[in-house]
Each structure stands twice: as C-alpha cells, then as structure tokens.
Amino acid sequence: MSVELPLWRALTGYRILTLVYTLVLVALSYDKYAHPLGAAAYMGALTVWMALTWRRTTSAERCTRHFLIADLSFAVGGILLTPLVDTHARIMDGAPTLPSIWTAGAVLGFAIKGGWRWAAAASAAVAVANLLERQELARDTVHNVVLVWVASVAIGYVVEVARASERTLARALQIEAATRERERLARDIHDSVLQVLAMVQRRGAAIGGEAAELGRMAGEQEVALRTLVSSGLVPPRQRTNGAGPAAPSGAPAPRPAAPLPDRPGAPCDIRALLGPYAGAGITFSEPGAPVELPAVAAAELTAAVGAALDNVRRHAGPDAEAWILVEDEPDEVIVTVRDDGPGIPEGRLADAEREGRLGVALSIRGRLRELGGSADWISVPGQGTEVELKVPKGGAPEGGRRGKGTA
User: Fold this and answer.
1) Which of 79, 92, 260, 330: CA 20 to 30 A from 157?
2) Digit-coded pLDDT (tens) for 56-93
C-alpha cells in the first residue's frame, strides 16, 4: 500500500468534518450577517461542491491539478465574499470567514499532491485573500495565515520524503530479490554444469588425443563460467524445480533421494533424503525417530550435504572415508559431515571464494543462509575436516529469516 493513501483518506475525512463545522458556525451566526441570504447561498454552493467532489480526495489519481485549483478557488472566493455578506464590525472583531477552517483542506490537497512547493503557493493565495478580507495586519489573521502555511509546507515536505523512501525501499527489494535469484542460479550451476565441465577436463586429460583438446576447452569454459557467476553478471531466470542431492564430480552419483511432498511447507523426514548417500566410504548415522523439516528446507539442506560430500571427493580423494551424522535438537536440525582427509589449510576457504569456486560460498553457505541457518568448518591439517550444518525448524526457505552465525 502506498504511504500516501492514509493521507488522502485523512484529507477526505477532514474536508467532510470541517464542512459540517462551518455549516454549524454559519447557522449559529445567521442573524448577525449583514446579508444572511448571501452567506446561505455560498454555504449551499459549497455543500453541493463537496457532495459532487468528495471522492476526488480519496486518491492521488482522482485528485487532479484542475480539481485542486477549483477547490482552492471555492475557498478563496468564500474568503473574499465575506466582507460583502458580513458586517465590518464583526470582521474587525475576528469573526471567521465564510469557509472558515475548511480552507485548510484545499491547501492540504496541494501539499499531498505536489509537495511543499505546491503547498507554499496555495498558502500564499489564501494569505493574500485573508489580508484583503481583513484589510489590515491583525494579529489573529497573521497567526492563522502562518499556521496554515507552516502546517501545509511541513506536510508537503513529509510527503516528498515518504515518496523518496518508498522508491528507495522498492529499489532495495528489487536488488535483494535479484541477488537471491542470482545466488540460487549460481548454486544450480555449481551443482551441475561446473561439475560436469570439471569432470570432462579431468577425463579428457587422462584419455589424451582429441579428448585432451575437448578437456582443455571444457576447462576454459569452466573458468569463464565461474568468473561470470562470481562477478554477478548472470541474468536472473526462473529456477528449476530439481532438488535432489548433487552428484560428486568424477564419482558415481548417489541413488535418487526420496521424493519431496507436493506442498513446500509440508513436513519431510530428512533421514529419507540423506539415506541414499550411505554407501562405500560414507557412513550415515541417524536418530531412531523422524527428523522433520519443511520440504523446501529439507531439499536445500540435502543439497548442501551433497556439496559437502562433493568437496570430500574432490579434495580428500576417492579413498577418503566420510561420516554423516543427523541430530534432532528442540529448535534446530544439525547435520555433521566429517572426513578423514588431509584437512583444509588455513585461509583456503577465503581464497577459493575469491577465485570463484562457489561450493562453500553458495552451494553450502548460501543455501543455509536463506533458511536462517549456518555452516561451520572445523579442520585440522592431517586430521580431516568437519562441516556442521544447522537449520532452524520452520526456517523460511525464501530468505525471510536471517540466522545468526557464521554462514
């Protein structure tokens, strides 16, 4: 909803209430006017005008510039008509003009529609009319003029600031949505295209001949694609619906995971999704009871585990042993992936991210960050690596929650 809509509704209510107030004032002072029929005629015309145009101030689209000028003309005309229908003594005693405080509604319409500059111009027109009506710089006249001018200019300035803030917020939301879409696309690329290119490069170099040339070309394309993804130049597109575990490069893909429920928010047992990873060289330990997460959160966690196992195969070698441990805590699900490889040298993760290798930055940390979770690495050279993945139960899969931690 636009930030202006409540202001337009308030202005509509103000104009209606002040019209009623003005009608009561004229009715109570009817016998004191020099020409009461003239005052009654103006109030009748003002009432008809309000009946025909009250909806014009319910939105910015209906409140056109021509309407505002006509509305202000009714107010200024009523002020200038006051000396003709009222006595000079009452005017000098400070009697209200015919439109009274209804005039401020016409000025506020300019403020909301065009900002403080329009408000200043409309207030100046009302000020000149009041001075002509009173024919002197009386203290109460100056007080009323300054009050209307300050209030309208202040409201106009607030409206301009609110509009600028609304545009800034809309732009920030667009950038955030585009960034999340780019990260999801980069994860998908890392889990599929980049791994295939890397495998083609290795196999081509091993086979030799024409295959070696094909492998060299695949390696060049892998480097170019990594640079493109890491620099944020990939155009957003619709993400695919595949959510299975990622296949480790250069190794047989694990058995297909259990199918996800049709509804993204439906509970899903994470054990059924991680179970297919168990096999030669991978030990899977799970609780005896179901460990449930929303379906989309479970799929993202499974993909992160697949990326961690892929790193084990790539960096620890095909003979390394890996262990997957699932823990069901009251507020979160913890999955630990541990291996007995050589470990990660200090600073290697940061260097890999700078080089455009997105396994840790996006396939693992990026997925868990959007779930409100975290990923922690514990590695001692020569003693293996342990990756601890935490996902809060009921986490928002679309980035609605941001978790605390190192992700």
Assistant:
1) 79
2) 998 888 899 999 999 999 999 999 999 999 888 888 88
